[in-house]
Amino acid sequence: xxxxxxxxxxxxxxxxxxxxxxxxxxxxxxxxxxxxxxxxxxxxxxxxxxxxxxxxxxxxxxxxxxxxxxxxxxxxxxxxxxxxxxxxxxxxxxxxxxxxxxxxxxxxxxxxxxxxxxxxxxxxxxxxxxxxxxxxxxxxxxxxxxxxxxxxxxxxxxxxxxxxxxxxxxxxxxxxxxxxxxxxxxxxxxxxxxxxxxxxxxxxxxxxxxxxxxxxxxxxxxxxxxxxxxxxxxxxxxxxxxxxxxxxxxxxxxxxxxxxxxxxxxxxxxxxxxxxxxxxxxxxxxxxxxxxxxxxxxxxxxxxxxxxxxxxxxxxxxxxxxxxxxxxxxxxxxxxxxxxxxxxxxxxxxxxxxxxxxxxxxxxxxxxxxxxxxxxxxxxxxxxxxxxxxxxxxxxxxxxxxxxxxxxxxxxxxxxxxxxx
Length: 421
Hints:
Layout: E1 3-5, H1 9-22, H2 24-32, H3 34-42, H4 46-78, H5 82-97, H6 109-132, H7 134-137, H8 143-170, H9 185-188, H10 190-208, E2 210-212, H11 218-229, H12 232-238, H13 240-271, H14 275-303, H15 305-325, H16 329-339, H17 343-357, H18 363-373, H19 380-392, H20 395-400, H21 403-416
Antiparallel strand pairs: 1-2
């Protein structure tokens, strides 16, 4: 197995900084700014825009489901993760920068959705290789806290990026660079700004972390990787613990993905929040989520990843149900900030659990399956939400479809993965 040298504090910091870099994409593009701009300013109307965004997210999820296990197996045989991490990061950055071209015109809706889908696919595939580096920078007894530190730093990065965009462009009467508010350039700039942010802060992990060991040619790695895919089912039959965990992760992550994709859209459409207020809400939510990720990092190592995930899912379900019935914006703010601390623990503990149970010789393949399990049905949540939203002409009805994913995922995790602690 390829090893990484320099697994020091500097390597840990560089690895965590990639979360800071890449988390700008889900915070700014997927959730709080561009998604709101698309449904409110580009699509013909908010309900249609919600459905279109849901279908684009579903298509991206299907592409990820097809690609993740392949690229994971290839990387296992290629010997190194960094080159693949760099390539898919670059693809995501370019696609993200292209969002500058999306004018407040329904004619640009298709271009927006394609660029968003490409960036989403590259973001998730890059995460396969980034996650696979975790055991190379953290000792086994510190996997939980290092994973949690990364998630926490990612939320802080999202806060800072959102704040800069709010002050410099979105809420500024005279946006920097002389951008034209009438043409929505003060909002469209979030695409290239996020791309630049991601590129700059991704450099440390690519420069500081050094991988040593054999590196097979891409063609050889491709042949061996594709051959290994055929043995994946046999591997999962032999490792039922991994198979059940991946099934649970598939279900509850679908709920999380859908919630991230439509939370800001729901805030704008059902509670009348303007874009500026949505960004402020996003900053507050990311702050509470970051605090939760840091706090639960130690709980993960102390109580175990399974229990940490379960705590997070119970709280997400309870608070999420309350968010569906409140009517006042004040109540939405309070509950929205209260739900934040439980996002990170579920995600970070899932990553650390995958790192703990993955055999060293199959680590990247397991993380490919981990990404697959988080995306193989990811088209279902957004597709169901979009369909129900249109059928009932109600964003609340659509958002209600998220909760069963949390409940069913929790049941599978707790009843079938009891031996993993």
